[in-house]
Design goal:
single chain, Rossmann fold, eight-stranded mixed beta sheet, 8 helices, binds 1,4-dihydronicotinamide adenine dinucleotide, binds the ligand CC/C=C\CC(=O)/C=C/C=C\C=C\C=C\[C@@H](O)[C@@H](O)C/C=C\CCC(=O)O, 15-hydroxyprostaglandin dehydrogenase [NAD(+)]
Length: 270
């Protein structure tokens, strides 16, 4: 997929991984709409990007991905300003085990909402041009992260939802590919949430598990994850694919075609 002048939308774009996705898209010639709840960081980033790429290449939109009204309204504004949507990255996410309903609403609800709303503009049957959606999960979407069961559940949910939607899109000929990114720990502000009782709640005594995991295997830089993101965007053979990025390598994860084909152990029901 050639990214020149493509119209992209990134949620949680003001910092961290979102910012890296914005930058790699801009470097590849795309225009990018930045969505975030952090107004000051969003405006600050927009000014920085204006200097490097020109004012017409980006726009910042203040919106909360948990609000149907916000998200729908902003996508409509983006289509009015830029003419269409080719690429969406549902990246906004938090870790908060204490206020777990909020974590589910942002990490899973925001991805579901973003995917459904953007498809209305992107799918070919509605006059859209097709394109690609990348949903940001985590390696915690593939296996448990012991001090973060709700975070783990939301990220497993992102994998399941996105794989199912990729199958829908293929069967219904939406012309939209839907892929999933599963990174290991990345050096962003999200990591500081793990050292706070306010975020981990009653699982706080287990925070050493994550610290040990990072001491043993290190922590990714956001720009490495952005390169993996670009693979999912550009490779037109990828739909419903899960790209895991750990400190040693980036690999596509294979799932059996049918649940029946998982590695299994027979159980006697006698
Ligand atoms: N940092 C890490 O170790 C890893 C992060 N991830 C995932 O990557 C994604 C991005 O995380 P980071 O860049 O690390 O976090 P971050 O905290 O650096 O950035 C997240 C951004 O999302 C925005 N945001 C939060 N709630 C929002 C909402 N309701 N609506 C709109 N924007 C909202 C924040 O204002 C912030 O700018 C998340 O989904 C996270 O779960 C996945 C694997 C590892
Ligand atoms: C709590 C959220 C913090 C950061 C964001 C994030 O998504 C980070 C994820 C990083 C790695 C996740 C790895 C998950 C691995 C699973 O396969 C588990 O099964 C591993 C379980 C225990 C590991 C214990 C150990 O290795 O010592």
């Amino acid at each position: 997929m050639d990214l020149k002048d493509k119209v992209c939308v990134v949620t949680g774009a003001a910092q961290g991984l979102g910012r890296s996705f914005v930058e790699i898209l801009l470097k590849n010639g795309s225009k990018v709409a930045l969505i975030d709840v952090n107004k000051s960081l969003g405006n600050e980033l927009k000014s920085t990007l204006d200097q490097e790429y020109g004012r017409d290449r980006t726009e910042f939109y203040l919106a909360d991905v948990t609000s149907e009204e916000d998200f729908k309204g902003v996508l409509e504004k983006i289509v009015k300003t830029f003419g269409r949507i080719d690429i969406l990255c549902n990246n906004a996410g938090i870790i908060n085990e204490k206020h777990w309903e909020k974590t589910i609403a942002i990490n899973l609800g925001g991805v579901v909402r973003g995917t459904y709303l953007a498809l209305e503009h992107m799918k070919k049957e509605n006059g859209g041009n097709g394109g690609v959606i990348v949903n940001v999960s985590s390696m915690a979407g593939l296996g448990p992260l012991p001090m973060a069961p709700i975070y783990t559940a939301t990220k497993h949910g992102v994998v399941g939802f996105s794989r199912a939607m990729a199958a829908v899109s293929k069967l219904a000929n939406y012309g939209v590919r839907i892929n999933i990114l599963c990174p290991w720990f990345v050096k962003t502000s999200l990591l500081s949430s793990m050292s706070s009782e306010e975020h981990i709640g009653s699982f706080f005594p287990l925070k050493g598990i994550a610290e040990t995991m990072m001491q043993n295997r290190g922590c990714l830089e956001a720009d490495v994850v952005a390169k993996a993101f670009l693979v999912l965007v550009k490779d037109e053979s990828k739909n419903g694919d899960v790209l895991m990025i750990d400190p040693d390598e980036a690999v596509f994860v294979s799932f059996p075609e049918r649940a029946k084909d998982f590695s299994t152990t027979p159980v006697s029901l006698e």
